[in-house]
Amino acid sequence: MDRSQIILVAIAAQIGVFALLLGVIVSLKGRRQVVDLRRRRRRTVLEPIVLRHARSTDGGLVTALGAEPGTFDLGVLETLLLEQIQAVRGRYQQRLVDACEEVGLVDRRVAQLASRRWWLRADAAERLGLMRSGRASAPLVAAMDDPQPEVRIRAAKALGLIGGQAAIAKLVTGLRHPSRWSAMRLADILTGLGEQAVDDLSAALPQLPEASRLLVLDIFGRVRSLKAIPVLRGLLSDPHPDLRARAAHALGLIGDPGSIPHLVGVLKDPAWPARAMAARALGRIPGREALEPLCLALTDSQWWVRANAAEALKSKGEPGQRALLGVLDTSDGYAREQAVLMLQESGMLDETMARLASADPGEVEQAASIIRKLVGLKRVDLLGEAAASHPDARVRAALLSLLRQPAEGA
Fold first, then answer.
1. Class of 257-346 per CATH?
2. CA separation for the pair 176, 275 (Å, rounded)
3. 139 — phi, psi (to 5°)?
4. Which of 208, 261, 297, 302 could bridge 272 with an S-S bond, Cβ 3.0-4.6 Å?
5. DSSP secondary structure letter of residue 407
């Protein structure tokens, strides 16, 4: 066989391989189209039966179907049932969950958790969570020890959807030796469980590593359960400053006025992050008890503490704004600067300038006194801009006059 014949044979072989691959692709596509068409037709038949079954009060799904579903129909039914379980609540959802158990979908996916292929185990765990069957709790708890991280995470998410104390206990245990990535996902799942997870988290907290303890405090803050308050108050004196800061933040999110004295104490914490978080927390809790300590915190050596304290006073409304005005009379320059910034952001300075045009001499003098203090703080940029652009000519004239006067305290 000469060289040209060899080339022709090679070309023919390649054409044959391509033709074979094309035939396989066309065959698979045709088969998939046939299966999809059959699935759509069966869905058209089965969907009304599933919907009627969800609304009924007696009988099982098998009775409604008239016979045990075959393997093909089970796949269609699983899709239908999972869609409807996510769409409804209460009695209707429970009817559909019971239907998953009745036709064997739960048992089928539980068996798949033992598959040698990890992606099939992960898919089974996810689907069991969507089915919300309590019967799957124990197998999913076991799947939390799967060697594949993706299977463990999907099992954890499934347990979060199903709920129950056994599920919560296992999820909390998962926080003891997690990677940072999986710990954050577990924290999201536990947050979704809400108040029912607080007791288990509180009991496990002392045994958890520091990173997981911080996540638990975040969970407490997001859940905002009053049951977490005693634990959080106790952590305000923990040796770890990050834990003290995160506990203060969580107490602020919960917003219980009884925590105010405890947070005021943290304003003297040796670690500035704890002081800063305590100041922010006090701004979230209603009440006037913290006004004076927050004003004192404006003199803190750390900028974040001063900024959070000023923001907290601003959030207190009129009482906080009056407290900020009082700070303008202090000798601490940092405190005065923060007070001016917050008064400006709150809109109170605009109101003060507007009162310069009042018909009440007392109001005019009170407003002028505040403006003189701002001049003394050299905030003439803000005042000069207002003197040039304020819509009221009387206010512009009064501001120009005050700006020409000697600064108060100069």
1. mainly alpha
2. 29
3. -60, -35
4. 302
5. P
Go through the chain and tell me how many residues it has: 410
Domain boundaries, the chain: 257-346, 351-410
Instruction: Give me 384's structure tokens.
Output: 């000069």
**Dist. CA 214–CA 209, nearest whole Å:** 9
Cα 307 from Cα 300, distance rounded (Å)? 10
Q: Which amino acid is at 68?
A: E
C-alpha to C-alpha distance for 135 and 128, rounded to whole angstroms: 9
DSSP 215-242: HHHHHHHHHT-GGGHHHHHHHTT-S-HH
Entry pTM: 0.71
pLDDT grade, residue 158 (50/70/90)?
very high
pLDDT digits (tens, 9 = 90+) for 48-57: 999 999 988 8
Handedness of CA 301, 302, 308, 310 (dihedral sign): positive
CB atoms within 10 A of CB 320: 24
The answer to whether the CB of 105 falls within 8 A of the CB of 80 is no
Largest CA distance in the chain: 117
